[in-house]
Amino acid sequence: MSLLAVRDLAVARGGLRAVEGVHFALAPGAALVLRGPNGIGKTTLLRTLAGLQPAVAGVIEAAADSMAYAGHSDGLKPALSAAENLRFWAEIFGGRDIEAALAAMNLRDLAARPAHALSAGQKRRLGLARLMVTGRPVWLLDEPTVSLDRDSVALFAAMLRAHLDRGGAAVIATHIDLGLHEAEILELGPFRAGRVPSQSRPAGFNEAFG
Amino acid sequence: MSIWEYANPVKFMRTSGAVLPWVVAAAALATVGGLVWGFLTPEDYKQGSTVKIVFLHVPAALMAINIWLMMLVASLIWLVRRHHVSALAAKAAAPVGAVMTLIALITGAIWGQPMWGTWWEWDPRLTSFLILFLFYLGYMALWEAVENPDSAADLTGVLCLVGSVFAILSRYAVNFWNQGLHQGASLSVAPGERMSAIYRYPLYLSMLGFFLLFLALLLIRTRTEIRRRRLAALLARENRA
Amino acid sequence: MWALLIRDLRLATRSGGGFGLALAFFLIVCTLVPFGVGPEGGQLSRIAPGILWVGALLSCLLSLDRIFALDFEDGSLDLLATAPLPLEGAVAVKALAHWLVTGLPLALSAPVFALLLHLPGPAYPWLVASLVLGTPALSMLGAFGAAVTVGLRRGGLLMSLLVLPLYVPTLIFGAEAVRRGAAGADPVTPLVFLAAVTLSTLALTPFAAAAALRVNLR
Asked: Quick check: C173 and B173 CB within 8 A?
């Protein structure tokens, strides 16, 4: 029984296939680390898994509403306090308690501060704390440690470890060692644009007319 | 063998290239023939020589609406079946439709001046065409503004759907707002005043001519769009490699 | 749903430019018109219904791009699109929030502005009624325009070009109701049509707007 199973997935960016033949399954407690040079399609793959863009080919098997996505921006409103920001997302995702999340990312002292007064690293911590209040089992993380200092990275690694121990799973695009020694690593190599098989649907204009 | 095979760009280019010269020739013949024949008709006892602009005005107005309908159908085909040529055909048709609307508006103004004594009247038909023109402008502006062709095709498709609903709604709202001076449809079989045959046949011919003209322009413009997309695709592929 | 509505209202009150801006713009329009057409009361009262409706419509337009642009930039829209709340619902709620901070205040304060333009007495209740019935459609159609243009640089001008033609039926029926009210005729017919336009807009546009948002998010 896996939380997320992906078979023969192809994703496209700018109307061209960027990644093809992705194949993996995540059991509860498992993590997958995406590696590869910039621009190889890690973000595109994560957004496709999150359902933000359609897959060109292949199957993504997961329960409905099981994925929480954390991209480059944190979805914070500068005019709201840290606690208000977090409480909003908690209510949208089903009304969980925000205290545990604030504690996990060491944000208790900053809870009343408006988000515009937070530093980049503090904002990121708040954005990551949001993952806990979604209550979703599969976390899709796109470079989660950007602008975090060493202590915060350790906090985040501990939060992620606790999530996996509770039976969650995660797909992470990162080059930083988060202490996930058992994690599988998916190396995304440069994609060579071959001929699109004639019976398959083109990914976009650029493929249809290539 | 199904009709959808022509949605394949390569097949479309081959077929359209073969029929294009014939369509252009037929369009030229019918348009010029219809307009010249129309010009040579006798003067109307009530409207004098001004009636002759009808051979330009009515076909243009007819095409202005029909081209929007064609764009609606093409957009639906794109949104449902994802045939890329269909989206490009809708894009290619829009400027032709906008120009047809403009021709209908301008010839209407020129005709209206001697008939009603005014260049512009907020009559339901005139107003509806002005609104239609605005819809064409918005549709074309959206195509130009969105850089990613896949997004542009989807967004303009949705806009065309919503715009169609509101164009019809506006038509009825405008009718409610002002009852108008404009005569009824020129070819409708109304008791009393009906267009006589000497005007009717040249009008049919110029309608056919305008339709063929649109078809020729549509084919040429769609072929240009396909070539442009092909070029962009090759560049994108090269940048990626 | 409530959480999203309350957040949007809170943001509108805290970051300014919500309630105040549209009303100030409406005031300016109603101040400028007499400078343009002359101070003669009879003439003003004749065109007042139209000016009030066009003014309300333009004031509404002013803040439309804020419906989605900020949420798009800071990533909130990505998160909303993956939330359990359907995106169509989120669109409708955000349009409702926009209406509560622009359309409703405009409708309720319109009688004050009507005084400036010498609107005939019997038209006042119909002015408020037509604006209350009509402005929800303006916000909802605006949300559609904002959704279509959300990813674009300088989308504001394009959005006006896309949205304003869609406002034609609402404007016609709304202003007609006020005009008939001012003339002492029966304004119920245009009001019923206005309500019909608004209801069908509210029923259909969220789907189109959500579809456009999904395209812009991918």
From this structure: yes
CA-based torsion, C115, C120, C122, C125: positive or negative: negative
Separation of alpha carbons B61 and B107, rounded Å:
10
DSSP state of A197: P
Residues in chain A within 8 Å Cβ distance of B150 = 15, 204-205
DSSP track, C21-44? HHHHHHHHHHHHHHHHH-S-HHHH
- Whichever domain contains A145, its CATH number is 3.40.50.300
pLDDT surpassing 60 at residue A197: no
What amino acid is encoded at A186 in this protein? Answer: L
Please state, in angstroms and rounded to a whole number, the distance separating the CA atoms of residues B85 and B214: 17
The residues spanned by each domain of chain C are 2-217
Of C71, A11, C155, which is closest to residue B147 (Cα–Cα)?
Answer: C155
Distance CA B42, CA B20 (A): 35
What crossing angle do the helices spanning B124-145 and C155-166 adopt, rounded to 10°? 150
C-alpha span between C59 and A179 (Å, rounded): 55
Sign of CA dihedral B219, B223, B228, B233: positive
Q: Is residue B47 one of the residues assigned to a domain?
A: yes
Tell me whether residue A22 is in a domain.
no
Q: What domain range includes position A146?
A: 27-55+65-187
Q: How many CB pairs under 8 A join B and C?
A: 76
CB distance B159–C155 less than 8 Å?
no
CA atoms of C101 and C9, how far apart (whole Å): 7
Residue with tokens 């996990």: A104
pLDDT, tens digit, 9 for 90 and up, residues B56-75: 999 999 999 999 999 999 99
- pLDDT at C95 > cutoff 50: yes
First-to-final CA distance of chain A: 40
- Structural domain including B229 reads 8-180+194-240
Q: Could you tell me if C49 and C178 are in contact, meaning their C-beta atoms sit under 8 angstroms apart?
A: yes
Q: Looking at the partner chain, which of C158, C168, C204 has a beta carbon nearest the beta carbon of B142?
A: C158
Q: 10 Å Cβ neighbour count for B223?
A: 18
Instruction: Determine if residue C127 is left, alpha or beta; phi over 0 gives left, psi from -120 to 50 gives alpha, anything else beta.
Output: alpha
Please write the tens of the pLDDT for every residue from A113-157: 888 888 888 999 999 989 888 889 999 999 888 888 888 898 899
Q: What is the number of domains present in chain A?
A: 1
CB-based contact A75 C218, cutoff 8 Å: no
Handedness of CA A190, A10, A54, A56 (dihedral sign): positive
Sorting pLDDT into bands at 50, 70 and 90, what band is B190?
very low
pLDDT tens digits for range A146-189: 888 888 898 899 999 999 999 889 999 988 888 888 888 888 87
How do A138-142 and A169-173 pair as beta strands?
Answer: parallel
CA nearest to A12, candidates A39, A60, A44, A35: A44
Chains that touch C (3 or more CB pairs under 8 A): A, B
User: In chain B, positions 84-143, which contact chain A (CB-CB < 8 Å)?
Assistant: 84
For residue A208, being part of any structural domain is answered with: no
Inform me whether the C-beta atom of residue A205 falls under 8 Å from chain C C-beta atoms. no
Distance CA C177, CA A8 (A): 60
**What percentage of chain B has pLDDT greater than the value 70?**
87
Query: Pairing between strand A16-26 and A4-13?
Result: antiparallel
Using the beta-carbon criterion (under 8 Å), do B153 and A205 form an inter-chain contact? yes
Handedness of CA A44, A49, A55, A58 (dihedral sign): positive
B127, B172 Cβ separation under 8 angstroms: no
Number of domains present in the structure of chain B: 1
Q: For residue A134, give every residue at least 6 positions away whose Cβ sits within 8 Å of its Cβ, in sequence order, or none.
A: A68, A89, A93, A94, A96
d(CA C35, CA C97): 34
